[in-house]
């Protein structure tokens, strides 16, 4: 089972890293860092110089060379200076590679970007700033040919495929189907009607360069939360639809409780922050992308919440082989959380449409 890993690395791994990066010092300190669900992340200090060290999850990203290839393609063609924030690239080792394979696993090193990361934010203005940052990322790469990018996780946001994985897990569940699990299975089965809308948009909208993991904790804010210093977790950059990136923001920003909350009854859509997100995307992208693309944004909120819920539930049925968990039912609880949010988003469709109308008028779109 993929349980919470121990909090320190073996000395032998640190020694091997020293050799790989050519560090001639014994002044190396590290501690676990961040709240990502996939890689294990450490804050590493080498002679006073601070880095982020990631133990890379190559079970999840089985094609790491594609990540390097995609980033190289994007960086060659476009000047990252066009963006008002950093896209931190890994530090190369002595062999010039982003990745260092050691006995203990596959590792990557990043420069540490100072600032603040949040699993939730509390103001409309911050929602707008976050949305503008992700929208700027999309905007800068609009002239790129998204099809040149390779899928780093094939079918990552393919809702239809995620439902097939759910069905497969249901054939031989690895956990007992208690009442809460059965309720979730029924809930997500019922919501499969959203797959048709996903397929419709997939057949109509252009593929763009999208980040695909726009949860709020993948932004590093300046200390005053009034600016974005960096956009991180670039492994899932691949061809996608604009509504994916808007949707994951809705899922993690425009909600009254964060993804790990178990207060199901108080999970709702925060319309004030939702408005901030829409305004951020409209301000940057209106006029640059098609009108149907703009109209698809609210669907992204529902679709991304649904796909995460289905993935969490599937992982629970498979007994936690994908996401890191701190206790066995955590993926079920995450699926319950996403279910509550999805219901709230569906219940607020009319209010969200009204919000779109109002903003379009205000911004003369
Ligand atoms: C994972 O690595 P992290 O925590 O930023 C996942 C995303 C999910 C997210 C759910 C590669 O992102 O797709 O949205 O957890 N990343 C991958 O919190 O599966
Ligand atoms: Mg992350």
From TrEMBL:
The keyword Transferase applies. This is Ser/Thr protein kinase RdoA involved in Cpx stress response, MazF antagonist. It comes from Cyclobacterium xiamenense. It holds the Pfam family APH. Residues 31-257 form the Aminoglycoside phosphotransferase domain. One of its GO terms (molecular function) is kinase activity. InterPro entries: Aminoglycoside_PTrfase (IPR002575), Kinase-like_dom_sf (IPR011009). The lineage of its organism: Bacteria, Pseudomonadati, Bacteroidota, Cytophagia, Cytophagales. Keywords: Kinase, Transferase.
